[in-house]
Model the fold of this input.
Amino acid sequence: MTKPKNDLPIRRILVALDVSAHSQAALEAAASVAALLDAELVGMFVEDINLLRVAQLPFVQEVCFPSAEARDIGVPQMERHWRSQATEARRQLGELAAERRVKWSFRVVRGPVSDKLLTAALDMDLLALGRLGRSLSRRTKLGSTARRAIYEGKGSVLLMRAGVDLRKPILAIFDGSDASYSALDVAAALAHNSGHLRILIWTDDHDQAQVFKGEIVDQLQDQEIEISFRRFYPHEKDKLVETFQKLEIGLLVFGTSDSHLASLLTQPMLELLDVPVLVIRQPVKG
Done:
């Protein structure tokens, strides 16, 4: 029988807010996830201590657009800017939470952005953030905070970008690990938004693939969603990114474990993959 919502591993969602387009996408996705999973939404705005240090330098100026007027940046100006951004971030969070009818809270902290978010995420079940941060660099599809959350974080992570439509089908990757069963539960709950769940069975063994399919059908038999299966052979891993891009999915969901799949999906492939990703990590049993 399908697990009830409160048995799913996501009850509190921390969303990183900085009023950028990618942050807005993360907020909208987190609000949708919170509504579907009956989870609480916690917004956090981080006053970047590194920017404050830059503002204290005597030669630093900002150039206003379109006037091209240059003016000094100081600590008071930076703090006013932060207050304005935090107010707007809180407004966006409150409006979306009210629209989705989910419980929410908002906090402002000061310090290194990645450190503050990863520390706060230890008390949460999911960290939602944009794939890119405030940097204007286009050399990567994964920002520094997103990279640390994936490679160093302890909890589940939702990576979003602007222009994503979560009404498209959800794709879950299943390799038979405990983590993939948890990911399957979460993916099925989220698939009620689109009504369609696609499952990518990851194994070279034909008989094992049939066993996996039977187990999945049993686990999701009470879900009122359309389920379709696709097979993927690990030895074809070089085609993985191309496969994901062609499927036109709304969200890729997979669980981390000690399997080869997990190490593959959480390594440089995520730098190339331009679809939203939800990484489910197994909770640590105390």
Summary: The domain at 170-280 is CATH 3.40.50.620 (Rossmann fold).
